[in-house]
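User:
Note these tokens:
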Amino acid sequence: MKRLRVTDILVIGGGIAGISAAITAKTTDPKKEVTLVGEEPFPYRRPSIFSLIEGGSLEDLAIFGPDCLAEYGIISLFGAKIKALDLEDRLARFEDGKKISFEKAVIATGGEPFVPPVDGSSMNGVFSLRSYSDALRIRKMAHAGARCFIVGAGLIGVKLASILHKRGVKVTLVELKRVLWTLLEEPLSEFVRDLLISNGISVIEGQGIESIMGQEHVSSVKLGGKRYEADFVVFVTGVRPRVEVIADQLKFGVRGAIETDEMMKTSVEGVYACGDCSET
């Protein structure tokens, strides 16, 4: 990439939303140059990262081959991170010092894991689950007999608990409210909880982890005033919009995402947003 590149439409985000936006933009107006920027080294199906924990390969995650976007006529820059985006001057600055000037932009930066402010949450052995690299780190810890505390009993937490249990991990699922409380009424929630317990997964409801302890690595957690030995902890406590590159240049909605109209237009002319980083 040249030191300064010029493009008609810059799409920021290499996930499903960004790729869909790039393809739509190019097929709508083939004469426009469309450039897609993604931080991760290749595009993949994020919901499929569970397969890595089960022992699958990275190839199983790929949305398509490396030449697919080129076949659409889209310029793709994977493994590239934008550190600053100036919407007024229409300029994106990369961490390596390179720049892209653009006419229009689509922001599809997605979300990032929300980890509650728990003492010790930055310690080695504490994970979230959002990317393929997260899944690989968890798989490395998931050996038979390892003790894992999963914080958050939504769909992801329950599925992760089941996968780790099948790998021989001693799993404890922790939820401040109750299992799958956002999806199920209490009787069905209790049924799922009892099913998990009957299959050998410990479930603690109505409590949250108070602190995580250890020297350089997790050794225990504090829960309900008691200390439990643990080898690793996984937080699956939701996501929040990833919008730090935008700073205060756009209008944001009630949940902190970029506010758009029904056509995905933002508060700045020529700038659009889609996916987990946006709300209508």
Q: What stands out?
A: The chain has two domains: 5-110+242-273, 113-238. The first helix runs from residue 16 to 28. The chain has a mean pLDDT of 95.
